Amino acid sequence: MNTHIFQRLSELYGNPGDEVDIGIQALVGEFQFIQHISKGKNVWSLDEEKPTLYFNEHGVLAEFSARGGKENCIRIIPPNSLFWSESSFLLGAKTDSSMRCIKESIIYGISGMNVQQITAEYGLGYKLANNLTALDIKLYRSRTWDLSLLRPAERLKKALGENPSLLSFITRDELAGYLDLSRSTLFRVLNTWHHE
């Protein structure tokens, strides 16, 4: 687990060298086991204080946002990924989404306070927050572009290309919400694929 966290953090820091590696090792050393999470359970729920940087070891998680009384999947967290609630970690606010397990996993985390102390002590600056935020923004922009410009079949093809096992661990309703499709449109697209 520590090796995977170190690799993810090193990628965010751009593999900068020995001095920063010591700081990264200090961060990795502070990650604690949070929970063995089963499908359907939440890492966090709406309106919680969760200023934590998390690591998803081997399962799959999905972030959900409720708008207009309807819950939609807005982000998929694959295995060996760092993630956080931006509103809680960066802004000190309560979570504005929920993060649910859709394929069993083990979750580790480090508190925002520990991240702040270690980055100050080792002179790591804001690179972690800046680069993780930049990745989140890139993901959201790509997703917005997909939802705006791609036809339903193209959205599904891209989503499955990025995560081929998506259909095995996400419900059709969740997938329809993630792709911003009606359930009937999703089933039409899937049936078309099966007949081709």
Write the SSE topology.
Elements: H1 2-13, H2 18-30, E1 32-37, E2 42-44, E3 52-56, E4 60-67, E5 70-77, E6 81-83, H3 86-89, E7 98-103, E8 105-111, H4 112-121, H5 127-149, H6 152-162, H7 166-169, H8 172-178, H9 183-195
Antiparallel strand pairs: 1-8, 2-7, 3-6, 3-8, 4-5, 4-7
Helix pairs in contact: 1-2, 2-4, 8-9
Give an overview in words.
By secondary structure, the protein is an alpha+beta fold. The protein has two domains: 2-149, Sandwich (Jelly Rolls), CATH 2.60.120; 150-196. It contains nine helices and eight strands. The chain has helices at residues 2-13, 18-30, 86-89, 112-121, 127-149, 152-162, 166-169, 172-178, 183-195, and strands at 32-37, 42-44, 52-56, 60-67, 70-77, 81-83, 98-103, 105-111. The strands form two sheets. It has a four-stranded antiparallel β-sheet. A four-stranded antiparallel β-sheet has the order 2-7-4-5. Strand 4 (60-67) and strand 5 (70-77) form a beta hairpin. Helix 2 packs antiparallel against helix 4 and helix 8 crosses helix 9 (183-195). The longest helix has 23 residues, at 127-149. It is elongated, with a radius of gyration of 18 Å.
Counting structural domains, the number is 2
Poorly predicted ranges? none
- The total of helices stands at 9
**Overall 3D form:** elongated
Biggest sheet features: 4 strands, antiparallel
Give the class-level CATH name of the largest domain.
Mainly Beta
Q: Provide the CATH topology of the largest domain.
A: Jelly Rolls
Strand order in the largest sheet: 1-8-3-6
Query: What's the CATH superfamily of the largest domain, by name?
Result: Jelly Rolls
Portion in strands: 15-25%
Radius of gyration based on Cα positions: 18 Å
Number of strands: 8
Which second-level CATH architecture of the largest domain applies? Sandwich
Structural class: alpha+beta
Query: What percent of the residues sit in helical stretches (DSSP H or I)?
Result: 40-55%
What do the pLDDT scores average to? 89
Secondary-structure element string: HHEEEEEEHEEHHHHHH
Intertermini distance: 42 Å
